[in-house]
Amino acid sequence: MKKKIIITSVILLLVYFLTVLIAPPLLDTSQNKTTWNVAELSNEAKELYEKLDFVGDLHSDALLWDRDLSKKSKRGHVDFHRMSENNVAFQVFTIVTKSPKGHNFESTDGNTFDNITLLSILQGKSVYNWFSLFNRAVYQCNKLKSYADAYDKNFIILREKKDLVDLLNKRKKDKKVIGGLIGIEGGHCLEGKIENVSKLYSSGVRMFGVSHFFDNKLGGSAHGIEKGGITEFGKQVLKEMDERNMILDIAHTSDKMIRDILKLYKGPIVSSHTGVDGVKESYRNLSDEQLKSLAKREALIGIAFFSEAIGDTEIKSIVKTMKYVKELIGVEYLSLGSDFDGSVTTPIDVTGYSYLVDEMLQQNFTEKEIEMIMGGNLKKFLLKNL
Fold first, then answer.
1. Does residue 18 sit within a domain?
2. Kindly report the CA angle at 121 between 117 and 123, in degrees rounded to 5?
3. What total number of domains does the chain contain?
4. What is the number of other CB atoms lying within 10 angstroms of the CB of residue 321?
5. Using CA atoms, how far apart are residues 374 and 386, in angstroms rounded to an integer?
6. What is the CATH number of the domain that holds 361?
7. pTM for the model
8. pLDDT (tens digit per residue) in 288-343
9. Does the residue 11 lie in any domain?
10. Measured between alpha carbons, how far is residue 144 from residues 7, 64, 199, 227 in Å?
11. Is residue 50 part of a domain?
């Protein structure tokens, strides 16, 4: 009997070991696709793109996957080598800690089975991360730090303004030097403990998205059941963030919650990855009223690259969305917000931004407007708010 137990245990461990080796790359490949449905690149677009001094994006979930970002990969949308080899200076790396089974843009119950728990187990992560959302957040912060260390000091994590100044100065001599900032996607990772705000800040988090796909203890999600406003705990969190001048991300947040945030929060605001109702009406996207309200607060609007935000996976639809926002509130509020590696299909990966520039030229954006959208607005925003 004892021998059978030992043999069974060994077999189960072997199966788990093989699963950990095989399953994560397959999941990454199947969830983060690129269509590469692009036209031939014009010389004008290529030359203009290569002249840009700061290309940056507001949202990538690459830390969720079992992929070493310090090494060049054929999987997914982003890694450090692909950034540096293609004139990309900066990426916000956002941390996903929970994804309920059956989540959708209309009505998601946060109490269903969590897909990230299963992913953590399949990736062979420590039991420490299996059932604690906060531990998962800290773990992903530490992952980015380890990747930065492995990249031979050529990746700078931005925690304050001097880090950005350092990045900009170093890129004047060597465009291979790149940088990033850590964000959170959903305040549920606080686990209802206000002290966890300061702990995440100490771990390097500078951007904080209050909501993701479901309502949480801070307030409503645009895709939640109640879709309500801010809670008392949410107000406490905003106060803690205000004291640290953290960037507040309203992507995925309910309309009532956005209204409350605009009244209560004094610090910098972004919508890191979004579409707009004027191009594709959706619970996911921002209305004209919301866009105008965000412009009054000098917020930054990151335009996403996936079909649920822009209508399809065509580059022209990304630019069409940008054009709508430009004409409604002005080009100075626009940024890239790809949602790379966020379990989405996009027309390009991080190596394809020159094709985006080409389409912007086709849709009559000026060189100055292109420079602003591709990263100039983001650089200005960070210099002001870090």
1. no
2. 115
3. 1
4. 25
5. 19
6. 3.20.20.140
7. 0.94
8. 999 999 999 999 999 999 999 999 999 999 999 999 999 999 999 999 999 999 99
9. no
10. 39, 11, 16, 32
11. yes
